[in-house]
């Protein structure tokens, strides 16, 4: 399917969210705007929720029922284009006309039998929903504001890598923390895991600490306001420390990032068998290990921070086939307990 460049720039998000790392580790909250084709809720639970009585929205043509966020993909597939368009924010409607939206939506949904919920992210006042079709090669992403308006909509053909998706690491790894953390990026498609587009970080995860649907309390431009900042980061398995950087300053949240040193402060551990854990964005000066140290699973590595190409305190974690983040290949992690981790879940680290 070929779209005009204008449409490729139209159906995405107007959200400030912790972005994935792309080719740089931990690229933090971004604002994006477009409609493209081209507390946490577990995936799969949306279909089981009852639809609430819809609210009403004033439009030029009168009053129309607002679509519940969980029903957006079904409404798109049902061809309710006018209803969806009328619920878009003014900013979105300024970027894409109703005619262009309908044309793109019809082309994209042709041949699709159903969209299934993949992830839900409700954090810091933003709500973000992802659905995939039966073949997992088409995805829909919708972002809603607190007033129920659609602030962002993305429809996207999805590239998949089934051979490596199905290959897990030889070793098992524990989560690199204790307690409950929120999975902001994680999964095997670009809509739930921004890293997936890049071979060097395809199976990476970004974890934030959240309470009552918020990752911070107080001034969002202070690192100390974020629940993740200063939290202990632990070794995910036994191994030898082969890389450490500890002197990169922490960024001011939402204001600055450090693209010149994308990983910020980090620790690389050789776990044997060609598997290396890379944990990034530590708090400046907090790393407690040195190159050559032998560590055991659960040993303290340092504290979570906001260094590198990051704009909110969080933990970036991945397993690679090389100690070099940029040249190695990311490996799909086999977790202790055999569970799968995807965006929108709250997971609990319980290391011995």
Automatic annotation (TrEMBL):
<feature type="region of interest" description="Disordered">
    <location>
        <begin position="25"/>
        <end position="66"/>
    </location>
</feature>
<keyword id="KW-0732">Signal</keyword>
<dbReference type="InterPro" id="IPR050570">
    <property type="entry name" value="Cell_wall_metabolism_enzyme"/>
</dbReference>
<feature type="domain" description="M23ase beta-sheet core">
    <location>
        <begin position="230"/>
        <end position="321"/>
    </location>
</feature>
<feature type="compositionally biased region" description="Acidic residues">
    <location>
        <begin position="47"/>
        <end position="58"/>
    </location>
</feature>
<dbReference type="Pfam" id="PF01551">
    <property type="entry name" value="Peptidase_M23"/>
</dbReference>
<feature type="signal peptide">
    <location>
        <begin position="1"/>
        <end position="19"/>
    </location>
</feature>
<protein>
    <submittedName>
        <fullName>M23 family metallopeptidase</fullName>
    </submittedName>
</protein>
<dbReference type="InterPro" id="IPR011055">
    <property type="entry name" value="Dup_hybrid_motif"/>
</dbReference>
<dbReference type="InterPro" id="IPR016047">
    <property type="entry name" value="M23ase_b-sheet_dom"/>
</dbReference>
């Amino acid at each position: 399917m070929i779209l005009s460049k204008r449409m490729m720039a139209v159906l995405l998000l107007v959200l400030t969210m912790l972005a994935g790392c792309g080719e740089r580790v931990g690229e933090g909250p971004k604002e994006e705007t477009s409609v493209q084709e081209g507390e946490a809720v577990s995936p799969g639970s949306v279909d089981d929720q009852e639809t609430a009585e819809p609210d009403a929205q004033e439009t030029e043509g009168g009053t129309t029922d607002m679509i519940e966020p969980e029903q957006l993909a079904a409404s798109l597939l049902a061809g309710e284009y006018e209803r969806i368009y009328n619920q878009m924010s003014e900013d979105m409607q300024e970027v894409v006309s109703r005619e262009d939206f309908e044309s793109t939506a019809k082309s994209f949904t042709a041949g699709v039998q159903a969209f299934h919920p993949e992830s839900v992210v409700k954090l810091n006042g933003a709500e973000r929903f992802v659905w995939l079709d039966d073949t997992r090669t088409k995805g829909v992403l919708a972002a809603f504001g607190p007033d129920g308006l659609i602030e962002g909509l993305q429809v996207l053909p999805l590239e998949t890598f089934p051979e490596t998706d199905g290959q897990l690491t030889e070793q098992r790894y524990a989560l690199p923390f204790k307690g409950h953390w929120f999975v902001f990026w994680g999964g095997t498609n670009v809509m739930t895991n921004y890293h997936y587009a890049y071979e060097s970080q395809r199976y990476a995860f970004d974890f934030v600490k959240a309470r009552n649907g918020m990752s911070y309390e107080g001034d969002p431009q202070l690192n100390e306001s974020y629940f993740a900042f200063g939290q202990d980061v632990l070794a995910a398995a036994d191994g030898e420390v082969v890389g450490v950087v500890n002197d990169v300053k922490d960024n001011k949240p939402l204001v600055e990032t450090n693209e010149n040193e994308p990983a910020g402060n980090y620790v690389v551990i050789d776990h044997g068998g060609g598997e290396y854990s890379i944990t990034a964005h530590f708090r400046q000066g907090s790393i407690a290990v040195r190159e050559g140290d032998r560590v055991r699973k659960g040993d303290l590595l340092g504290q979570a921070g906001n260094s590198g190409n990051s704009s909110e305190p969080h933990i970036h974690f991945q397993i690679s086939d090389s100690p070099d983040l940029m040249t190695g290949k990311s490996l799909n992690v086999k977790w202790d307990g055999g569970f799968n981790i995807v965006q929108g879940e709250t997971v609990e680290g319980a290391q011995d």
